[in-house]
Amino acid sequence: MTRWDISPSGVEFVTSLVEDAMDDLAKDVKAYGKNIESAAGSAGTISGPYCGMPPTGPVGAAVSLFVEKTLGDVLLLSARAAKSVNGAREATAYYVVGDLEMATKTQHKALAAPKVELPGQGGGKGQGDSKK
């Protein structure tokens, strides 16, 4: 990048709006999880009488498969937003102190896709990019 023209207060304003949206997204994801669980449990089966836990029906199985296939995308949304906000703030801090080289490096680092580990895989907690 050959020229920087950043308004630190503008960056803070925009990143605070993104954080508000991230908070709303977190609430929506939590509700999504509860609603999906309820839908899968309420879907019923096409089997006859049974003893013990009810078998999973085709709709419940499809809902479960949908969640399994989309979980990474859902987790990536919050990880990507958090990495972007943190990168923008860090790059702006370097810009303010006049270190344009570090600001550029930080900006490029923030643009890279975050590493998202799904719960139960790789020993991570599924909370975004814990490794930089």
Explain how this protein is built.
The protein has helices at residues 8-42, 58-96, 100-111. With 132 residues, the chain is an all-alpha fold. The chain is elongated.
Poorly predicted ranges (pLDDT <50, ≥5 residues)? 124-132
DSSP summary, beta strand count: 0
The helix content is: 55-70%
Structural class: mainly alpha
The percent range for strand residues is under 5%
Termini separation (Å)?
Answer: 22 Å
Sequence of secondary-structure elements: HHH
Q: Rg, please?
A: 21 Å
- How does the major sheet shape up? none
| H/I helix tally | 3
- Summarize model confidence as the mean pLDDT: 80
Principal-axis shape: elongated
Keywords summarizing the entry:
elongated, mainly alpha, 132 residues, 3 helices, disordered C terminus
